[in-house]
């Protein structure tokens, strides 16, 4: 049996990428906030939301507000309060067309981990595939 899919672009991901937070098994290049700075986000299909590192949230001008701890998230570090923000996330390409998705990020001053590209509000909005033999991340708008 053969299946076919079409994707608008692809990029190389990094496997076992070392960071200050530990190794990222699959680190996907991205531009949160549609900014110029490239960030590697931990691709986590089991993450409820995308999670933005505190440093990145401050750089983008959307640090968590103490007066709005509206969202509880259970993390590997335990339960934490934070807030939800919609931020454009650009997936750059090696070949094809970059993709921008309005991603839903959870932001908390309690989070000390990496930026995470999660399911709800991001990965569920695009079509994607991973080829581990070539460390390639394929993607397209879900409407393609």
From the structure above, extract its key features.
single chain, 144 residues, mainly beta, Cathepsin D, subunit A, domain 1, eight-stranded mixed beta sheet, four-stranded antiparallel beta sheet, 12 strands, 51% strand, globular
Count of alpha and pi helical runs: 1
- Which term fits the overall shape? globular
First and last CA, distance = 23 Å
Question: What is the name of the CATH class?
Answer: Mainly Beta
Calculate Rg over CA atoms.
15 Å
**Proportion in β-strands:** over 45%
* SSE pattern: EEEEEHEEEEEEE
Return the CATH architecture. Answer: Beta Barrel
DSSP E strands, number = 12
Question: What does this molecule look like?
Answer:
By secondary structure, the protein is mainly beta. The protein is built from one helix and twelve strands; from the N terminus they run E-E-E-E-E-H-E-E-E-E-E-E-E. The strands form two sheets. Strands 2, 3, 4, 5, 6, 7, 9 and 10 form an eight-stranded mixed sheet that branches. Strands 8-1-12-11 form a four-stranded antiparallel sheet, with no helix packed on it. Strand 3 and strand 4 form a beta hairpin. The protein is globular, with a radius of gyration of 15 Å. The model has no long low-confidence stretch (mean pLDDT 88).
